[in-house]
Amino acid sequence: MLLEKIKNRESNLTTFAPMTDNGTFIVEGGHKLSGEIIPQGAKNEALQIISCCLMTPEPVLLENLPDILDVNKLLDLLAGLGAEVDRIDRQTVRITAKNIDVEYMLSKEYVSDAQRIRGSVMLIAPMLNRYGRATLPKPGGDKIGRRRLDTHLLGLQALGGDFQYDADRHIYTFTTKGLKGTYIHMDEISVTGTANVVMAAALADGETTIYNAACEPYLQQLCKMLNRMGAKIEGIGSNLLKIQGVDSLGGTEHRMLPDMIEIGSFIGMAAMTGSDITIKDCSIQNLGIIPRTFERMGITLNMKGDDIHIPAHDHYEIQSFIDGGLMTIYDAPWPGFTPDLMSICLVTAIQARGSVLIHQKMFESRLFFVDKLIDMGAQIILCDPHRATVIGMDRRAPLRGISMSSPDIRAGVSLLIAALSAEGTSRIDNIHQIDRGYQDIDGRLRALGASIVRE
Ligand SMILES: CC(=O)N[C@H]1[C@@H](OP(=O)(O)OP(=O)(O)OC[C@H]2O[C@@H](n3ccc(=O)[nH]c3=O)[C@H](O)[C@@H]2O)O[C@H](CO)[C@@H](O)[C@@H]1O
Ligand SMILES: C=C(OP(=O)(O)O)C(=O)O
Q1: Given the CA of residue 142, which atom of ligand 2 is nearest to it?
Q2: What Enzyme Commission number(s) does the record list for this chain (predicted)?
């Protein structure tokens, strides 16, 4: 069955990940989970790395790709552009971007598909480098607040790219007569913005310095991959990158890191549901302050080699700051705490002992889903669009199962965690939002003992 699907997929890129536009989970709460789970390859790394495959006409082999909607959509975009996309198995793909049809970027199909994912924004630099022009419809991704593109646009402009914005069609058109290295102080520490500018500079004429660059592990992975392809990037892992432009890049092989957001999601899920689980092969050295942040919420993490074991918690108590002040969890660009785990921390605090202020600084519409948690019985005060105070219930009362809809990818998983911990049955609609970023999440959690039915 699997093999048939893979063959199918090689010929027309039909995806494994369900492509429904909404979908529903029926979750019976109260079952404890147990066992081992392997995190998928990182979604946000995969989107950078797949885009980078357009930088060379030679084959690039990608391993540990997650089979999720956003990744498959980006692969479809590359295939539409004329790249050969050979799926070797569920997590392995070879991409050869030899004969690219730049006109495809103007097609209705391209515009409509590129609008659906954030990752499409990173196709600009490779196309500008190799073909001198690129088109970008306003990219999609989570509707979690304003997501401006200034960092990308100003960076590419500094390198010699021109752009025009068609405000009626929401389409940017980029052209260049040749990119030239320069000094760039990035407008803000943007992850995808840095990826775009790094890729543009890698094949530009001369030296580029990027200051205020994002430096998170997935960006480091992109820079390392580019260097294996023949680029000359120094300062990897810092916010000051020096890039000596080269004439061309060759093929390579690349393996995605485990997805740190999935790992954090499983830690929160284990604590909330009082489950004993082991998350395998976490690449702990690349998790930054994620483990420490969950430990500050009172969750015990036993590190065993590269595995994280979370024992069953009857109780977990949120720590105070050293001066006795109320714990605040807030997001910041790497090496700070990732914004993509804020919703997970929020839901995890519901059954902790003590209180925590969740301060989501980067995005302004990510906390509104708390109304559903409040309906389930959680004690949360939404202070303003950026801040919510959670008053932990210490398991004095369980949440109640309700019907709800998933507004975005991380809120969706947070609602799933709440539903798994709740008394009774919950219905979560619009789970296509969850499928954007979590591979076969229902199947993998069922294997740990969860009761989830996909409708
Ligand atoms: C496909 C992908 O990789 N998506 C990730 C990427 O999105 P993306 O690259 O789109 O996000 P950016 O890093 O550009 O910025 C995220 C948001 O934070 C704001 N901002 C950023 C830096 C800063 O110093 N101050 C500030 O307020 C930006 O204005 C923006 O609203 O990085 C985000 C931040 O880690 C993650 O949430 C997304 O999951
Ligand atoms: C916000 C996210 O994704 P995207 O940038 O693709 O919308 C996320 O992964 O949490």
Answers
A1: 7
A2: 2.5.1.7
Q: How far apart are CA 30 and CA 24, in angstroms?
A: 19
Distances (CA, A) of 127 to 131, 144, 200, 259: 5, 28, 9, 27
pLDDT confidence bin for 48, thresholds 50/70/90? very high
> Is 362 assigned a ligand-binding role in the annotation?
yes
Tell me which residues are annotated as active site.
142
Rounded-to-integer distance, Cα 339 and Cα 342, Å: 5
pLDDT digits (tens, 9 = 90+) for 227-276: 999 999 999 999 999 999 999 999 999 999 999 999 999 999 999 999 99
Q: Which domain holds residue 22?
A: 2-40+258-454
User: Of 255, 277, 296, which residue sits at a domain end?
Assistant: 255
Residue 187 annotated as part of some ligand binding site: no
Dist CA 186 CA 212 (whole Å): 5
- What is the reported pLDDT for 17? 60
Nearest atom (ligand 2) to Cα of 192:
5
pLDDT score, position 7: 34
Q: Are residues 233 and 132 in the same domain?
A: yes
Q: What is the mean pLDDT of the chain?
A: 94
Same domain, 22 and 139: no
- How many Å lie between the centroid of ligand 2 and the Cα of residue 431? 15
The answer to whether the Cα torsion of 259, 265, 268, 271 is positive or negative is: negative
pLDDT band at 306 (very low <50, low <70, confident <90, very high): very high
Sheet holding 183-185, edge to edge: 183-185, 207-211, 240-244, 232-234
CA–CA separation, 233 and 256 (whole Å)? 19
Q: Is the pTM of this model over 0.90?
A: yes
Which pLDDT does position 139 carry in this prediction?
A: 78
333 lines ligand 1 (CB under 6 A): yes
Residue minimizing CA distance to atom 28 of ligand 1? 362
Do 276 and 217 belong together in one domain?
no
Q: What is the CATH number of the domain that holds 343?
A: 3.65.10.10
Q: Whose CA is nearest to atom 7 of ligand 2?
A: 141
Q: Which atom of ligand 1 is nearest to the CA of 361?
A: 27
pLDDT of 147 reads 84
Residue-wise pLDDT for 102-139, tens only, equals: 999 999 999 999 988 989 999 999 999 999 999 999 87
**Where does a domain end: 255, 287, 319?**
255
Question: How far away, in angstroms, is 353 Cα from ligand 2 center?
Answer: 30
43 is in an annotated binding site: yes
